[in-house]
Design a protein that fits this description.
The protein has two domains: 105 residues, Four Helix Bundle (Hemerythrin (Met), subunit A) (Up-down Bundle), CATH 1.20.120.420; 193 residues, Rossmann fold (3-Layer(aba) Sandwich). Strand 9 and strand 10 form a beta hairpin. The chain has eleven helices and ten strands. With 320 residues, it is an alpha/beta fold.
Length: 320
């Protein structure tokens, strides 16, 4: 059998996810689901077997782009598990319908999460953020809608400076923003009432896998007595991982840290550029989801309720 035809739309989305043109767990999940829908609609498969093979191949292509962001495989699982039917037309319709359902639930989940998270923020609070999280920003947006005055201390989040995206969004909402370099976080924690971050994955023990630098911020915040709130849709829960330290941490291109133009001046050094780190649950006060807010140690109960027992294999595997 020839290799299944993957549409240019899927390839483009996969490339954008890998190159971080599409970033943020919710945005990645939404784009991946939409790409599978486009693959289904564009398929010219003659048989149900060929159609399923194309969809699995498209899912594998997307899955391989970002190993740490669990929202990606969770989105793919959701869509592929909705693939049902005995004809190509039935299979196509089931995929398209499941994609529409998934994207609708994704939008509603972030809104519900924001309303719950806003209840933890008080009028006049100053938050400190790290990286860029649409889930975390949803909490701020709902607090503002509730009439609360919120200000923010935003870490740049090097090397890609995703904090600048957060700063721009907050300023669009007229939130007073102080932008700081990452190394200044400990100093400015004295001025913060909450640390508010997102998550790329959450392990069953409540460990939070998020942008590199989150764990150091959490340790400093706990030492200063500043509560740490993690805003994360249940799409970020990683039911197959018992502890955060077993999650594969993505290593990014070393040129993000040391561009080619600067390498000669620095000399022959080894460069490592991990994209994420693991924050142990003891440094987290609350994990806010669309299902409610939970202490980290209760996350495993939520996972069992949502996912039950995990089956072997993935729906995009050839033998699944």
């Amino acid at each position: 059998m020839n290799d299944p035809a993957i549409t240019p739309a899927v390839t483009a989305v996969a490339d954008d996810i890998a190159e971080m043109e599409i970033r943020g767990a919710a945005a990645i999940a939404d784009a991946a689901a939409a790409a599978i829908g486009e693959q289904a609609q564009a398929s010219e498969a003659d048989t149900p077997e060929e159609f399923r093979a194309e969809i699995r191949a498209a899912a594998r292509r997307l899955h391989e782009t970002r190993p740490t962001a669990v929202s990606l495989p969770n989105a793919l699982r959701y869509v592929l598990q909705g693939m049902e039917g005995n004809t190509v037309a039935e299979l196509r319709d089931s995929i398209v319908a499941t994609v529409v359902e998934f994207r609708r639930e994704l939008d509603q989940a972030q809104d519900n999460l924001g309303q719950i998270g806003a209840n933890r923020l008080r009028d006049g609070d100053t938050i400190m953020t790290h990286c860029h999280s649409t889930d975390a920003l949803s909490c701020v947006r709902h607090a503002l809608n509730d009439g609360k005055d919120i200000s923010a201390i935003v870490k740049e989040t090097r090397p890609r400076k995703q904090g600048h995206i957060t700063a721009r969004q907050l300023r669009d909402w007229d939130v007073p923003v102080t932008l700081i370099v990452d190394n200044a976080a400990r100093r400015y924690l004295n001025d913060a009432d909450h640390v508010l971050v997102g998550a790329d994955s959450i392990a069953a023990d409540g460990s939070v896998i998020n942008k590199i630098g989150t764990s150091g911020l959490a340790v400093n915040a706990r030492e200063r007595g500043v509560p740490i709130m993690v805003a994360a849709q249940t799409l970020k829960l990683h039911p197959g991982t018992m502890t955060g330290h077993t999650v594969e941490i993505e290593m990014r291109d070393e040129r993000e840290v040391l561009p080619d133009a600067e390498r000669e001046a620095v000399g022959d050094v080894r460069v490592e550029n991990p994209a994420f780190d693991v924050t142990p649950p003891r440094y987290v006060d609350a994990i806010v989801t669309e299902r409610g807010q939970f202490p980290p140690e209760s996350i495993v109960t939520l996972m069992r309720e949502l996912f039950g027992d995990q089956q072997n294999g993935e729906p995009w595997d050839e033998r699944s």
